[in-house]
Amino acid sequence: MRAVVTGAAGFIGSHLCAHLLAAGDEVVGIDAVTDTYDPKLKERNLDVLRRSDGFDFRFADLLETDLARALDGAEAVYHLAGEPGVRPSWGREFPRYTSRNVLTTQALLEAARGMPLRKLVYASSSSVYGHTSHLPTTETLCPRPVSPYGVTKLAAEHLCELYRTAFGVPTVSLRLFTVYGPRQRPDMAFARLVAAAVRDEPFALYGDGGQTRDFTYVADTVTAMRAAARAEFTGVANIGGGSRASMNEAIAIVESMTGRVDLRRTASQPGDIRHTGADISVAADAFGFAPQVTLREGLAEMVARERFSGGSRHGPGPC
User: 256 and 293 in contact (C-beta within 8 Å)?
Assistant: First the structure.
């Protein structure tokens, strides 16, 4: 298929582009290469993707470019662009989140109206659920986000549903549960943990480590995205790793590969969710989603890449 990927230079976006290209798709990548984290890391992702004849990159802000022209000829649109991070989304930073997460999504959906798209896949987040005792969580649970970031992701998800029901835009919102893997954003827990372990540096852990997550390997995530784009399914689906693990368990796995981690425990932060867990039966039934990579296997790959790159946060390129 001919695909457009917004947020193509980011962690998940660059993996998705590589996956689509490997499957034979033509890919138009769009990214503003913002400074949420070091833009040089995003440029490294793009350098590898640009080696493929099937990849066309466009440096653009979604709110300032001609989106109808950018989407022309596309069969699938994967919307991954946005402002990430729960902890920075409070206070004065919130307008940036509303602009990059909500307004950009509305602009993209408006441009997609009337276009013969096969699918528009939106990368939502498990953050929309907030605190819940219903684990694993199903899509029918009423979302109650506990961070401004989660609020913006849910708002964008609602926009997708509105444009789907009102105008027939074939949208799928995938609620991603804690995606990890090589080239993960440097502020995220596993990226910091693996880097600290390999470099023998302190690792700051928020909370007591008993918090659990449904960690999802990035290759499983992007496989699910393409499968969703090719299926008939529209609506909302969870994408998780298949089982929950605590941060203490993840640290123990990394220590078994690198030696003892110099752990510095700090207080949990506003917006941090205690437990997440995905019921993935909707995705399994609708487009055959079945995670393949265990947490140990995924962390081993991150450790290997960190060692290979000589301590750089990013490995040699997309996997």
Answer: no
The closest of 79, 87, 128 to 106, measured between CA atoms, is 79
Tokens coding 293: 């990579």
192 and 186 Cβ atoms separated by less than 8 Å: yes
The answer to whether the CB of 234 falls within 8 A of the CB of 164 is yes
Single-letter amino acid, residue 280 = I
Say if residues 220 and 230 touch (Cβ distance below 8 Å): no
- Would you say 112 and 69 are in contact if contact means Cβ atoms under 8 Å apart? no
Closest CA to 115 of 71, 81, 53: 71
Q: How many CB atoms lie within 10 A of CB 241?
A: 26
Element (H, E) at 204: strand 202-206
Rg over CA atoms, the chain: 19
Core vs surface per residue 112-131: b (16+ CB within 10 A) or e:
beeeebbbbbbbbbbbbbbe
Residue type, position 314, single letter: H
Residue 190 has pLDDT above 90, yes or no: yes
Q: Return the structure tokens found at 171.
A: 């949208």
Weakest mean pLDDT among 33-37, 151-155, 297-301: 33-37
Task: Answer for the pair 149, 271: CB distance below 8 angstroms, yes or no.
Answer: yes
- On whether the CB atoms of residues 172 and 233 are closer than 8 A, the answer is yes
Write out the two tokens for 240: 């998780």
Q: Is 122 a known active-site residue?
A: no
> CA 119, CA 232: separation in Å to the nearest integer?
9
Q: Are 204 and 287 in contact (CB under 8 A)?
A: no
- Tens digit of each residue's pLDDT (9 = 90 or more) over 103-161: 999 999 999 998 999 999 999 999 999 999 899 999 999 999 999 999 999 999 999 99
Residues 39-54, mean pLDDT to the nearest whole number = 95
Asked if the bond preceding 136 is cis, omega within 30° of 0, the reply is yes
d(CA 191, CA 306): 9
From the candidates 149, 163, 180, 217, which is the catalytic residue? 149
Helix (H) or strand (E) holding 57: strand 55-59
Instruction: Give the type of residue at 92.
Output: R
